[in-house]
Amino acid sequence: MKKITSKLVAIMACAVVGCGAMVSNAPIVSNYSSDLSAKAVLVDNSNLIKLTSTSDSNFDKRVVQIYAVYSDGSSYYSTGFIVGKHTVATCAHGLYKSDKNGYPTYVNVYVERCGSSSYNNDYSFKVTYSADKKNILVKDEYKKTANRADDIGIITTTKDLSALGKFDLNTAYTPDKNNPHTYTVKGYPMEDGYSEYHRYQCYSSGNYRSIINGGLRYYASTLHGMSGSPVIYNGKVISINVSGIETPSSKYNIGVEDISWLNDYIS
């Protein structure tokens, strides 16, 4: 495994493939494209660990990389995680773009990805969007407002994923503000200045910060592409990582506080 220690860098969570950002040892101020809705943040004193082998004890085969392709040919990477025999949960902004006719034409889901061409071909799959089947779906409220609190979606496949295991959800989770819990975020960065981490599973841990406007805030680090990552506490998913905030005085990432919507769509 290999770790990154933060250098006060803020970059996007889901972006157009091929768009890069110059990264240096100094803080960066970026101009973000209007169709990109979220950022990722490397947090001080929070290491992001890159896993270079699927045999590493920290590698989690329930965490997947998602590649979505839209009708105009644009494509986006994000992260997802298995929650049912046929179901992958993720963020809505990786599955729905209002300025690109909504849902993607198709998504590729890569299981046990560990390098540019290394993934489990037996369990990786493609889903072509079907409005009738609702096999790619985001919360209705997100389509109306793109609100961070509703940034949640699912992918349903006919492939049986049960051999890979699944995450249980804790939809009743309440943080302890007097004794902050430590959360772990696991996902797949897109390159955007960190090409050596693209297509490798990474993870980071950090403490609870606050809850504001439906967003669970925490100090774990993420990179562009890790939107849709599970936020884990005591072995269960309590949130979905969707965004980050960086100001001169504070840096943290944000997850969807209420993930109970998923329960109606797990199969």
Largest sheet: 7 strands, antiparallel
Order of strands in the sheet with most strands: 9-8-5-6-7-11-10
The CATH top-level class label: Mainly Beta
Shape: globular
Number of strands: 17
Distance linking N and C termini? 34 Å
Residue ranges: pLDDT <50 for 5 or more in a row? Answer: 6-37
Radius of gyration: 17 Å
How would you state the average pLDDT, rounded? 85
Q: Indicate the structural class.
A: mainly beta
Count of folded domains:
1
Which range best describes the helical content: under 10%, 10-25%, 25-40%, 40-55%, 55-70% or over 70%? Answer: under 10%
Strand-and-helix sequence, N→C? EEEEEEEEEEHEEEEEEE
CATH fold category name: Thrombin, subunit H
Entry keywords:
six-stranded antiparallel β-barrel; 17 strands; seven-stranded antiparallel beta sheet; mainly beta; 267 residues; globular; 34% strand; 1 helix; Thrombin, subunit H
Write the layout of secondary structure elements.
Elements (H helix, E strand, L loop, with lengths): L1 E3 L5 E3 L26 E3 L6 E3 L12 E7 L5 E10 L2 E4 L15 E5 L14 E4 L7 E3 L1 H6 L7 E4 L25 E6 L14 E11 L2 E4 L11 E4 L2 E11 L4 E6 L11
Antiparallel strand pairs: 1-4, 2-3, 4-13, 5-6, 5-8, 6-7, 7-11, 8-9, 10-11, 12-13, 12-15, 13-14, 14-17, 15-16, 16-17
